[in-house]
Write a structure and sequence with these properties.
The complex is a heterodimer of chains A (about 850) and B (about 290). About 0% of the residues of chain A have low confidence. In chain A, a hairpin with a 6-residue loop joins strand 8 and strand 9. Chain A is globular. The longest helix of chain A is centred in the first third of the chain and has 48 residues. Chain A has about 850 residues and is an alpha+beta fold. Chain A has four domains: about 220 residues, no CATH class; about 190 residues, no CATH class; about 200 residues, no CATH class; about 160 residues, no CATH class. Chain B has about 290 residues and is an alpha/beta fold. Chain B has a single domain, classed as P-loop containing nucleotide triphosphate hydrolases (Rossmann fold, 3-Layer(aba) Sandwich), CATH 3.40.50.300. Chain B has twelve helices and ten strands. In chain B, the strands form two sheets. Chain B has a six-stranded mixed beta sheet with strand order 6-7-8-3-9-10, sandwiched between helices. In chain B, strands 2-1-4-5 form a four-stranded antiparallel beta sheet. In chain B, strand 4 and strand 5 form a beta hairpin. In chain B, helix 8 packs antiparallel against helix 9 and helix 9 runs parallel beside helix 10. At the A-B interface, helix 13, helix 21 and helix 24 of A face helix 5, strand 6 and helix 7 of B.
Chain lengths: ~850, ~290
């Protein structure tokens, strides 16, 4: 038997593909999406980096070196850097090789808009001294600030605050009181930008900036050094060493730019990873879609393949011809995806640069890795997904060509057994982990790996599960005959239905599991607060603000006077150095009040007022540091210039609410935030909580950073980060839904094609177009709902498992995100409806005569 | 057989629930003489008047029907025969409201089919016409019983249970009702299709080569049933076939050639049909010679 030449086989493949353009295009779309997200992620990351590099290159133009304070290593970012002292500045200025120096005084502050609200949320407001060289500031209106009561504001601040030239702005820092400044100028930045990195800025005189940032001390955030002609930056670096001393350090402007770029890269890296995650989800989901499409295409070509086998094509040739088709499809789709992704990445860079950096000038970088990765993943996933259908096709016996079309479905036993085994193994691993039989660390790993296995296992079981589930779903449509037919059609080919529904299932599982976990965390916190915190109301502000929300302690007097208030106590907070370790320290004028309202108990000592040199601590922290009652500890606060000694006067029982250390409110001037950050209010039994809330709200009218909150508000604010996480995850679902729509459309179009004769018969014996449309729509919605319900079930189960595994960390309550789940079901119906449009129209327009014609 | 008059009157008066009443059915079966006195003997179930139908345009135009006028009597079993391309299938499609006519009128019962929109046509097919196809065309997802009651289900009504039972019994399908089509033989499938066609008691059943895909024994069973349904139930049947044996079961054979009716034969036998076919072949051959 002569073998077919590969070329002719390839030609057949290409011709065949041309005939199936629409279906392949739909399938390719999923690959396009995956490749596009990957390319976009990599292009975005690279482009932002190069854009930022350009921007940083422009900053400090003409400056050779920077002198800045040494950053203490043990402290986090919240610590206030001690500035470069005036003495160091003078010494640097006097050094050989220095032509001139300039100073920068800069830190975050709060400023109020024309409504008395704090300007900005995530993007901070900075105070800076006019004349600093970190960037060129270009006055657009007015002039530079000349006296302490004057300020020039950035154009973005003017826009955001609604204030302008001639207005008065109220600004204050963590150390200063609210002060009014006259706006004498409005400025922009090079390139016509309104802001740097999206933040707002207020420029004061150097002295006023020092008052706001350094509580009035004559120190500087940074000193910029211009080298004299003939002196290089590197030479100057050594020459300045004696002048700078140990409190400060010198960096070349090149190193500084590199540091800044690295910092920005971290932020854009998050966006990049997010897109990359999307790409991977799209790719993962595509696997099912592609495998499904190829199975379907091959099923339709069985006769053709058998004929080719009969005339001498080898098995390998059949596999190769299917894989060639996959390769061509994958290459085209990956190429399209790469182009879309690169374009999208560039566009996204402009958007991000415009919004985040306020930079009109974007430098788009297309790293080769972006193109290679997107192409490789796109082509790879297509070919790999087509492998199983290709192998199956090669097993077609030549005699099949002679037989009448046999539409017998391949048994799903193999995949079902595998799925059952994997699910069981996963469940077992989870059970072992949950019962704590694997030992501390392995328990959580067991639950995690088990959850992953269950996920994969159930995905494999979808075909088997589709029969009973789709039948059960059918009850929904049983009132309509078209609905009944549609439901039966959905149950007709379990393998196909399952493959189609899997796309949606995966997405829904991921989001449901995460949402369930996050909802449980919230519910646990709420419960915990309800059970343990005696205070009904809190005065506090959003944790996301750039500057810790705080308020004037004077309002506490007013709050204590409010009718119905039994007890009110304020708290100060700092991250301090205690015996060389970083510790949370609370300061309060009313230690007993704090302990009582937070539901804590004192184990040793008493809860009497703390003396200036006394400190209290919870048992766990005391043990950690090896201190006991009567021991002495040394503490240095964020702004503290000297270590202070305290004697341990009380040890608290372990309680999450009363974690950390407690001191009297004696040294709050040395705290990072020198004003109280929180107050607890206990409403008297029988008191009117709503009335107290309203009264306190009134007292806080001039405290824009904080508000009065009940337990629910408080927990909501504490968990606001989770809300963002949930939103981010919903976006992921959105993507999975797009792929799911493609998958469902693909399957339905094929089903409609296969059932043309049936549709023709139904139309002939009197089924209306409307009924036909409804029948296809029901099939579509049933498949989508099946995927969503399965995803919700697995997601909730996995969420529960992880929650159970985390009970010891305090996530004690299992809560189901019912509203979100209802939303997912709604989304599934939407997917079904959208996907049904084209196939349903096609079905309703079936040419009856052509459909029922024989021969 | 003269139940035809009743069929006529049933079509003429607005349909009412009583029409589907089992007792009414019995009356209808047994009281033919009473009804037949009320109106002329043979009424027309389906009629075509001056029907033209062409496909394509210009050079490629093929005229499938040329000025065809024909009437099909109620309660009669008519076969349409003719060589391939004679237009017999086109004629049936036009009669059944599956295809539109270029000129001329088609009437079923008291309804003019010509000019109806898709919705009205669909409703007409659903309520007044039954179909039997060569390829059976059963829905594989439905059981035999569900397939039989499919037209009623589509209409959102319930088929008269006694009537359906009677058909099922006649077709010997009683113990096959819960089977899916794939579990049935070809003959059984076609019998299910016959039951489906009759279940709504349509004004007319169109059968398109109903025995084309069956072995002789199964084909005979189906033809016997069609004959019985005409004789015992007063059903009107129009059957397209190229098989003289099948045509012999009909009361009348209409021969089509080149889009025109060329012969109308009453009480056909297999032999007379074969003779007639031979005669046509000779005529066609002569015409071709002349043209050459």
């Amino acid at each position: 038997m002569t073998r077919l030449r590969p070329q002719s086989l390839l030609r057949t493949t290409v011709k065949g593909m041309a005939a199936r353009k629409a279906r392949l295009a739909l399938t390719g779309l999923a690959v396009v999406l995956g490749a596009a997200f990957i390319a976009a992620a990599l292009v975005l990351t690279a482009s932002i980096r190069s854009t930022v590099d350009d921007l940083n290159g422009a900053a400090y133009a003409g400056v050779d070196l920077l002198v800045r304070p040494v950053e203490p290593e043990t402290y986090g970012e919240r610590l206030v850097r001690e500035g470069v002292s005036a003495e160091t500045l003078a010494a640097v200025e006097a050094s050989d090789g220095v032509e001139r120096v300039s100073t920068t005084v800069s830190w975050m502050i709060n400023a109020l808009d024309d409504n008395g609200k704090v300007v900005g949320g995530f993007a901070p407001t900075s105070a800076v001294n006019w004349g600093d060289e970190s960037t060129d500031r270009e006055l657009r209106e007015g002039r530079a600030p000349e006296t302490d009561g004057e300020v020039a504001v950035s154009a973005k601040f003017a826009t955001d605050s609604g204030l302008g030239l001639g207005d008065t702005v109220t600004a204050y820092s963590m150390t200063s009181d609210k002060t009014e400044y006259a706006i004498v100028g409005v400025y922009g930045y090079p390139g016509g930008r309104d802001s740097l990195s999206g933040g707002t800025e207020l420029a004061f005189t150097t002295e006023e900036a020092q008052y706001l940032v350094f509580d009035g001390r004559d120190v500087y955030s940074m000193v910029a050094v211009h080298a004299a002609d003939g002196t290089s930056g590197a030479e100057l670096l050594d020459a300045l060493a004696p002048a700078v001393g140990a409190e400060a350090e010198t960096v070349t402007i090149e190193d500084y730019s590199a540091e800044m770029s690295a910092e920005t890269a971290e932020i854009t890296g998050v966006i990049g990873n997010f897109l990359l995650g999307f790409g991977l989800v799209a790719v993962f989901v595509s696997v099912f879609l592609i495998a499904n499409t190829f199975s379907i295409v091959i099923a339709g070509r069985l006769k053709e393949i058998a004929m080719m086998r009969a005339i001498g094509a080898g098995r390998g040739q059949i596999v190769r011809s299917v894989l060639a088709e996959a390769l061509i499809l994958g290459a085209l789709a990956a190429l399209a995806g790469t182009i879309v992704g690169v374009a999208g990445g560039a566009g996204l860079t402009s958007a991000v640069a415009g919004r985040l950096l306020d930079s009109a000038q974007v430098s788009v970088a297309i790293p080769p890795s972006a193109v290679i990765a997107a192409l490789a993943v796109g082509i790879g996933v297509t070919v790999v997904s087509a492998l199983v259908p290709a192998l199956r096709a090669s097993k077609t016996p030549p005699v099949e060509a002679m037989r009448a079309a046999v539409k017998a479905d391949k048994p799903i036993t193999g995949v079902t057994v595998t799925g059952a085994v994997v699910t069981a193994a996963g469940a077992a691993a989870m059970a072992l982990g949950l019962t704590g039989s694997l030992g501390d660390r392995a328990d959580l790993a067991g639950v995690g790996i088990g959850a992953g296995l269950v996920f994969v296992g159930v995905t494999l079981l979808t075909a088997w599960l589709s029969r009973p589930l789709v039948a059960a779903l059918g009850a929904l449509w049983s009132w309509s005959f078209a609905g009944k037919l549609g439901r039966r059609n959905a149950a007709r080919n379990p393998r196909r239905t399952a493959g189609t529904a899997a796309a949606l299932m995966i997405g829904v599982t991921l989001v449901t599991a995460t949402a369930t976990l996050l909802t449980s965390v919230k519910a646990s916190l709420t419960d915990y607060f309800q059970d343990n915190v005696k205070a009904e109301l809190f005065v506090t502000g959003p944790l996301t603000a750039a500057v810790s929300p705080s308020f004037d302690p004077a309002v506490m007097d007013g709050i204590r006077e409010v009718e119905g208030v039994d007890h009110a106590v304020e708290m100060y907070y700092d991250l301090a150095d205690i015996d060389g370790t970083e510790q949370y320290v609370n300061a309060t004028t009313d230690f007993a009040g704090i302990v009582g309202l937070f539901g804590g108990t004192v184990a040793e000592g008493d809860d009497g007022a703390l003396a200036d040199d006394e400190i209290a601590v919870n048992a766990w922290a005391a043990e950690d540091l090896g201190v006991g009652m009567g021991d002495t500890v040394t503490a240095t606060f964020s702004r503290g210039t000297e270590a202070r000694e305290f004697t341990v006067a009380a040890i608290l029982d372990d309680n999450e609410n009363t974690d950390g250390w407690y001191v009297a409110a004696t040294y709050t001037d040395e705290f990072y935030t020198t004003k109280p950050t929180m107050a607890l209010i206990d409403v008297a039994d029988g008191g009117d909580v709503a009335a107290v809330t309203a009264a306190v709200d009134g007292l806080l009218a001039n405290e824009p950073e904080v508000s009065v909150q009940n337990h629910e508000d408080f927990v909501a604010e504490m968990t606001v980060f989770y809300d963002f996480a949930i939103i981010a995850i919903q976006l992921l679902l959105g993507l999975a839904m797009v792929v799911a729509v493609i998958g469902v459309v693909n399957t339905l179009v094929l089903s409609v094609l296969e059932r043309t004769r049936e549709l023709g018969m139904l139309r002939a014996i009197g089924m209306t177009r409307g009924q036909t449309t409804r029948m296809v729509t029901v099939e579509s919605v049933t498949i989508a709902l099946f995927g969503a319900i399965l995803g919700i079930a697995v997601g909730v189960a996995l969420g529960w498992a992880i929650q159970s595994a985390l009970v010891e960390t305090g996530i004690e309550v299992f809560a189901v995100p019912t509203a979100l789940i209802a939303g997912y079901l709604g989304a599934a119906v939407l997917v079904g409806l959208l996907a049904a449009i084209a196939p349903a129209v096609r079905a309703s327009k079936v040419d009856i005569l052509a459909a029922i014609a024989y021969e | 057989m003269h139940h035809t008059d009743h069929q006529r009157s049933a079509g003429a008066v607005p349909r009412n629930p009583e029409h589907r009443n089992p007792r009414h059915t019995d009356t209808f079966i047994e009281s033919e003489s009473v009804v037949s006195t009320a109106s002329p003997v043979k009424t027309t179930a389906v009629a075509a008047q001056g029907v033209w139908k062409a496909y394509g345009s210009g050079e490629a135009q093929v005229v499938a029907l040329r000025d065809v006028s024909v009437e099909f009597a109620s309660g009669a079993f008519t076969a349409i025969m003719g060589p391939s391309g004679s237009g017999k299938s086109t004629l049936m499609h036009c009669l059944a409201g599956l295809d539109t006519t270029d000129r001329g009128t088609v009437i079923i019962g008291d309804s003019t089919v010509t000019g109806l929109g898709d919705k009205a046509l669909t409703k007409l097919r659903r309520d007044k016409i039954g179909f039997i196809f060569q390829q059976f065309n059963l829905l594989p997802t439905l059981t035999a019983e569900e397939n039989i009651t499919l037209p009623a289900a589509i209409a959102g009504t319930k088929a008269d249970p006694d009537w359906v039972k009677r058909i099922i019994h006649t077709l010997d399908l009683t113990d096959r009702l819960s089977h899916k089509p794939t579990e049935l033989s070809g003959g059984q499938q076609q019998r299910v299709a016959c039951a489906r066609a009759l279940a709504t008691r349509p004004d007319v059943v169109f059968a398109d080569e109903p025995t084309g895909n069956l072995d002789t024994r199964s084909g005979t069973e189906v033809l016997n049933f069609l004959r019985t349904s005409v004789d015992d139930f007063g059903q009107t049947i129009v059957m397209v076939t190229h098989d003289p044996t099948a045509a012999a079961y009909a009361d009348r054979v209409v021969f089509l050639a080149d889009g025109q009716i060329v012969e109308d034969m009453a009480d056909p036998t297999a032999d007379s049909v074969i003779d007639k076919m031979k005669h046509f072949e000779e005529l066609v051959a002569a015409a071709q010679e002349e043209a050459a």
